[in-house]
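Our consortium's second objective concerns turning raw sequence data into structural hypotheses that experimental partners can test. To show how far this objective has progressed, the report includes one record in full. It was chosen at random from the queue rather than selected for favorable results. The single chain below, 108 residues long, was entered without modification.
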Amino acid sequence: MPTGGIDEVFSALADPTRRRLVETLAGGSTVTASALAAELPISRQGVAKHLAALRRAHLVRAERVGRETRYRLDGAALEDAARWIARVGAEWDERLDDLHRLLDAKRT
């Protein structure tokens, strides 16, 4: 995923309400905005705005089923962001290991 996509993911996940929506959708089922609003202390319109931000970040997909719009988590963007975090974390782990080796060498 290009950096811009990861930026959108991190920006979307910076909001605690959106993180809660992602956690709820991670259960695997499709859910309406009304059902999500029933679980949160915000209005259906508020949930719809958060879902729109998650859709822009490609974290959520919407599907019309009759008169309802049902939402589900799209894990691909999360996987890309997790790979980026793992790669950066591995680089820091390597640097810290180098530092530990250097400090151990100076002690002996």
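The partners drew two points from this record. The longest strand covers residues 60-65. The radius of gyration is 19 Å. Both points have been shared with the crystallography group to help prioritize constructs.
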